[in-house]
Amino acid sequence: MTRKQARRRKQKKAARFKLPTLRIAHVIAPVVAITAVVVTYFASASMLDRPIRAIEINGPFQRVTALQIEEAISGELEDGFVSADLSRIQSQIVELPWIDQAMVARRWPSRLRITVTEQVPAAIWGERGLLNVRGELFVTDARHIPAELPRLSGPESRAADVAQRYLEVRERLIPVGLDVRRVHLDARGAWDMTLQNGVEVRLGRRDVDERTDLFLDIVADIINGRGNDIDYVDMRYSNGFTIGWNNGARSPVGDPAEAVDDMLALRGAPE
Questions:
Q1: How many Å separate Cα 4 from the centre of its chain?
Q2: Which of 44, 66, 144, 262 could tie 253 with a disulfide, CB 3.0–4.6 Å?
Q3: Other Cβ atoms closer than 10 A to 211
């Protein structure tokens, strides 16, 4: 009797761990469906992947020609209409000098449309480099230097910082009738700039933002109109600044809080 009961318990335990059965059809059917989709996709792509027959290139060409663009991507055009790597084609176009942006798109049945935007030079960097409107150095040795552009200079790694300071200063000078002609940052970190009227502004290395604000808020408005008489403005003082006149005279201005009164008195400074 005991043996029969033990046998029954073993049979119940074995029944509990019985593995589920799967029908082969339930496994094969999804595999077949997925395979059919993949085969159909590659077959369709193969039929559509015809050779590229034409290229349409659009853009306001001044520094770059459509022929230069076509030559730069000629190796990529050997791929078919579908298999052509548009991202790689776009990258190769943007690597060309004077190209700022590029868009590449497929046009059925076998044509690529390319639209490019050229760089807009905003300033001269160093001797022959050019910066764009974002302060990026996009040409290091330009053959033609637009004479009307401002000149910026400094360590190449600080090009964006120099460009940013130029843009900020210029935005605040224009309303008072002045403009910036040159901004320079030397290797020691000292700043100086030259205005359109020839006045040099020395900012130095320390408290540059505060000195720049003092110049823009007080000095710039008052020296406007006397550019022919002034050689430089030295802002490298903790309690004021100095005006250097073209005749060699110097006029120190003390407490910046009293700078307006002091500068008004300088209107009658020696010629």
A1: 86
A2: 262
A3: 23
The Cα 78–Cα 89 span in angstroms is 12
Q: What is the pLDDT of residues 216-244, one digit of tens each?
A: 998 898 788 788 899 999 999 888 899 99
Phi, psi of 192 (to 5 degrees): -150, 155
Asked whether 49 and 78 are in contact (CB, 8 A), the reply is: no
> Do 129 and 139 form a contact (C-beta atoms < 8 A)?
yes
**How far apart are the C-alpha atoms of 230 and 197, rounded to whole Å?**
9
Cβ–Cβ under 8 Å, residues 51 and 83? no
Judge whether 193 and 182 are in contact, CB under 8 Å.
Answer: yes
Integer Cα distance of 265 and 79 in angstroms: 76
The total number of residues written for the chain in this structure: 271
User: Helices marked H in the chain — which ranges?
Assistant: 2-16, 24-48, 66-72, 86-94, 159-173, 208-214, 220-223, 259-266
Comparing 135 with 194, the larger pLDDT belongs to: 194
**Domains, in order of start, for the chain:** 54-118 (3.10.20.310), 121-266 (3.40.50.11690)
- Asked if residues 64 and 118 have their Cβ atoms less than 8 Å apart, the reply is yes
pLDDT band at 261 (very low <50, low <70, confident <90, very high): low
* Arithmetic mean of pLDDT, 146-173: 94
Number of CB atoms found within 10 A of residue 84's CB: 18
Per residue in 86-118, pLDDT tens? 999 999 999 998 999 999 999 988 899 999 999
pLDDT for residue 25: 55
- From the list 122, 182, 121, the residue with the least C-alpha distance to 151 is 182
Decide: helix, strand or coil at residue 137.
Answer: strand
Parallel/antiparallel/unpaired status of strands 111-118 and 54-58: parallel
* pTM higher than the cut 0.90: no
